[in-house]
Every structure is written in C-alpha cells, then in structure tokens.
C-alpha cells in the first residue's frame, strides 16, 4: 500500500538567515539547500558520501550534505559557499584559488573553499601535509591538487597578515 508522505515544518539557519521550510523526513540537506532555498552553490556529485562536492559547514565543521537529512540540521548553523562569499569581490580563499588556477570546471570548488575555511579557522598555519589531509575527502577531477594546495598556502598567508 502506498504511503502518504508527511511534510514537517522545520527551521533552518543558513548563512546567518532563518528559513522556515516544509520537508519530508527523508529529504537530504543537499536537496533542500538547492531546491527549497535556491542555494545551488552546493553541488551534488556522487550522492553517497564519496566525492565531497556537497560539503557545507555545519556549526563550522565540514559535513557532506548528501549524508545528512535536512531535519537533522535543525538547530545548527549551516554555511554554504554563498555565505562564505563577500557581497562584492572575492574572499581571501577564493582570490587565492583564482591566483593559483586552482579550479577549472569549478564543480569541486565550493566544497574546497569551505573545507579550506574550516581548516584555516582551526589551524591558521597548516603544513602542506595538513592541507592535503584536510582536503583528502574532496575529489577534483580536473585541476590537480598541487595548485589547490598552493592556493590554500597563499590563503593562509593572507589571512595571517590580516
Ligand atoms: S555528493 Fe555528497 S559526497 Fe558526493
Ligand atoms: S575544478 Fe573541476 S572538479 Fe575540481
């Protein structure tokens, strides 16, 4: 017998704003961010926790939004790439990625940027090994990781200089 899906009213905090939304308990955070809130900077690749493209920050920690139900995010502060970008221009991390050609198609880039933001928030002066470890859950199929690592090193340097 077919089951009738039930919508739940929840409130999500995303990029400093409060969003009342209606969701089914089974809906993924990644889908709700993209389709309900229009925050399409969160990309969806594998949808099984492998590629890292859907990474957002949940209370400051990188989290795969395809492995989390939207209802689980209630009460947390979510940051997507839209919230990590200034109104105009680029953030220090975005600018460093641009300088080092650390993106080509850009599919992995929002997640790379957010993962970098989280890394630099907890470790302002990471070693190359620590950068590679922090980004190891994010797959880039076109740029090559060396440019990305160099971009993170420049971003760290810029942030330390204020
Ligand atoms: S889409 Fe979530 S890890 Fe690949
Ligand atoms: S820039 Fe294309 S997947 Fe990373």
Keywords:
162 residues; Diverse_Oxidoreductases; metal-binding; Ubiquitin-like (UB roll); 5 helices; five-stranded mixed beta sheet; alpha+beta; DNA polymerase, domain 1; 5 strands; binds FE2/S2 (inorganic) cluster; globular
The CATH superfamily title of the largest domain: Beta-grasp domain
Average pLDDT, rounded to a whole number, is 95
Give me the secondary-structure category. Answer: alpha+beta
| Poorly predicted ranges | none
Concise account of the structure shown:
Helix content is 33%, strand content 17%. The chain has 162 residues and is an alpha+beta fold.
What does this structure look like?
This protein has 162 residues and is of the alpha+beta class. It has two domains: 73 residues, Beta-grasp domain (Ubiquitin-like (UB roll), Roll); 69 residues, DNA polymerase, domain 1 (Orthogonal Bundle). 33% of the residues lie in helices and 17% in strands. It contains five helices and five strands. The protein has a five-stranded mixed beta sheet with strand order 2-1-5-3-4, with helices on both faces. A hairpin with a 2-residue loop joins strand 1 and strand 2. Helix 2 crosses helix 5. The chain starts with 6 loop residues before the first strand and ends with a helix. It binds FE2/S2 (inorganic) cluster (2 copies). InterPro entries: 2Fe-2S-bd, 2Fe-2S-bd_dom_sf, 2Fe-2S_ferredoxin-like_sf, 2Fe-2S_ferredoxin-type, 2Fe2S_fd_BS, Beta-grasp_dom_sf, Diverse_Oxidoreductases. Pfam families: Fer2, Fer2_2. Its EC number is 1.2.7.4.
List the helices and strands and how they pair.
Layout: E1 7-14, E2 17-24, H1 29-36, E3 55-58, E4 61-64, E5 77-79, H2 92-99, H3 109-122, H4 128-134, H5 145-160
Parallel strand pairs: 1-5
Antiparallel strand pairs: 1-2, 3-4, 3-5
Helix pairs in contact: 2-5
One FE2/S2 (inorganic) cluster binds at residues 103-109, 140-143.
